[in-house]
Specification:
With about 525 residues, the protein is α/β, with parallel strands linked by helices. The protein contains 22 helices and 18 strands.
């Protein structure tokens, strides 16, 4: 056995079974090891941002890490933006990066670079492997680091000679400690706020509070106190519909978020940090909770949030069950022109039970979340770190994790152009993804931001830098070129017909909406 095989065998023994890869010469022993050892699914991404985004989507749905395999510093660097998003999503990921042979590093060959410095800002754990013999243990430690609550990125830099040299053994999986309990007194303090302020309290939720166990406990608390359930603006993953309580999203623009929160007298944080504005604007604060508003942390994302919510529900003597699940209530099929409202209504009207919606639809996506509040049970995921180009890869990884579920990639055009190669991976792997592309031929949010910055008459360059109209992009043609069947629609009626058809078909497909 060589080092590369010891890495793959160790990963398999720890339950890691997918590798999203874009390899090069320094990873050849690992590529060979994927064949030499049975059991690891190898998925090729044609850009490293696809691999890292797919690993994020996979982790959000599988609750365990996949490997990414990338080539030296430059290959890894191409995947950093989506690792940034994964860090914000708290997704467990193990990056494996091949490096030059240890003795060749000093030669400073063209592809040599400081990989560790690239890895550190997006990795909670980084290790440069020193020998083939240590590689198995290094791998086991990387997997344990990635899996420690709430989920982290661990990066293993593996010189090629450590891959090809002999290794004696594999390493046993390392037991991962359960998440920390909430702080002493946290439940009491939060119960006190809820008792005092009741319906004037916001229970602001994130991380595991947005999964079914946490949400059921949150629903009990809301049933007892009348408090409002609000989640992070960009949830990594939230379960919705069926027995799940209705949860609002905190609005994106700080003015609206502040207006929302100032209606309340107290905030309880459960698995979420106190929210801050996405950007600094003149004369606007960073913090969105009004100054002086009593705020208590029930549990941080690193702590046992679901257990803390259950303890809080018990503490305030909330009913054991929050009440019957609400009936499915979908909007009517829309008609007329395509805009954010009709698109959101069409998707909410037709999304199948148990689907996964990956929302990187940017401005077109805004009305969808509330339009789908009465939809059947489904999972919703958002762009967590603001680094656009995450939607198509994340949907790809989610589909690898959940082959029996329909994944809907609700996708803005500008953002989609960063990592459109994900479509090719979807076709090659026959993944159940329906991509719904919002082709508004512009960076609309940037046009909105220009207006907010007081630029009422954008100049030629500002218009050019926010327009995707010349030349026009044909998503249907690009998808067809990558093996994904695609159609174009320009009315709400045509959208509903095509969406119903596309959602019923297995495998990937794409609908380009001209908005
Ligand atoms: C990696 C990265 N590069 C650039 C940006 C800046 N940026 C934010 S939104 C945006 C354009 C979004 O346009 P699109 O996806 O078409 O959505 P729309 O605003 O039109 O709804 C850009 C370039 C970013 N957030 N992340």
């Amino acid at each position: 056995m060589n080092g590369a095989e010891s890495l793959i065998r160790t990963a398999l023994a720890a339950g890691v079974e997918v590798c999203f890869a874009n390899p090069g010469t320094t990873e050849m022993p690992l590529v060979a090891a994927l064949d030499a050892v049975d059991g690891m699914r190898a998925v090729l991404g044609l850009f490293e941002g696809v691999c890292t985004g797919a690993a994020d989507g996979y982790a959000r749905m599988a609750d365990k890490p996949a490997l990414t395999l990338t080539h030296l510093g430059p290959g890894f660097a191409n995947g950093i933006a989506n690792l940034h998003n994964a860090r914000r999503a708290r997704s467990p990921i193990v990056n494996v990066i091949g490096d030059q042979a240890t003795w060749h590093l000093a030669a400073d060959a063209p592809l040599t670079s400081d990989i560790a410095s690239l890895a550190r800002p997006v990795s909670a754990w980084v290790r440069q492997v020193k020998s083939a013999q240590s590689l198995a243990q290094d791998t086991a430690e990387a997997i344990a680091a990635a899996g420690s609550a709430p989920g982290r990125t661990a990066t293993l830099i593996v010189p090629s000679d450590c891959q090809w040299s002999t290794a004696d053994s594999i390493a046993k999986p390392i037991k991962i400690a359960p998440p920390n309990r909430m702080a002493d007194g946290a439940v009491g303090k939060c119960a006190e706020l809820l008792r005092k302020h009741g319906a004037k309290t916001v229970l602001f939720i994130g991380a595991q509070a947005m999964r079914s166990r946490g949400l059921k406990a949150a629903a009990r608390i809301a049933a007892k106190t009348g408090c409002r359930l609000v989640c992070e603006t960009f949830p990594a993953r939230i379960e919705r519909g069926g027995a799940m309580p209705a949860v609002e999203k905190l609005p994106y623009f700080p003015e609206q978020a502040i207006d929302t929160l100032k209606q309340f007298a107290a905030v309880v944080l459960a698995g979420a940090l106190a929210p801050v504005a996405f950007f600094g604007y003149p004369n606007m604060p960073s913090a969105l909770i009004p100054e002086g508003c009593p705020t208590a942390t029930l549990a941080t994302p690193e702590q046992d949030v679901a257990g803390a919510l259950e303890a809080l529900a018990d503490e305030i003597a909330a009913p054991r069950e929050a009440g019957a699940a609400g009936a499915v209530k979908r909007p009517a099929r829309p008609s007329g022109k395509l805009d954010s409202v009709t698109v959101g209504a069409a998707l909410a009207a037709l999304m199948p039970e148990n689907c996964i919606v990956m929302d990187e639809a940017a401005t077109t996506g805004l009305p969808f979340f509330s339009a789908s509040s009465g939809a059947p049970p489904h999972t919703y995921m958002a762009l967590t770190g603001g680094a656009i180009g995450q939607g198509l890869p994340c949907a790809t990884g989610a589909a690898v994790a959940c082959p029996d579920r329909k994944v809907i990639a609700f996708q803005a055009d500008g953002s989609g152009m960063y990592t459109l190669q994900a479509l090719w991976t979807q076709a090659r792997e026959h993944l159940n993804v329906t991509a719904l592309i919002c082709n508004n031929r512009r960076y609309r949010i940037l046009q909105v931001e220009l207006a907010r910055a007081g630029v009422t008459e954008p100049g030629r360059k500002a218009r050019s830098l926010t327009s995707l109209a010349e030349p026009e992009i044909s998503w249907a043609a690009m998808a067809n070129g990558m093996g994904v069947p695609a159609v174009r629609v320009d009315t709400a009626e045509a959208l509903t017909v095509q969406l119903e058809r596309a959602l019923a078909e297995p495998g990937p497909n794409l609908i380009e909406m001209l908005i």
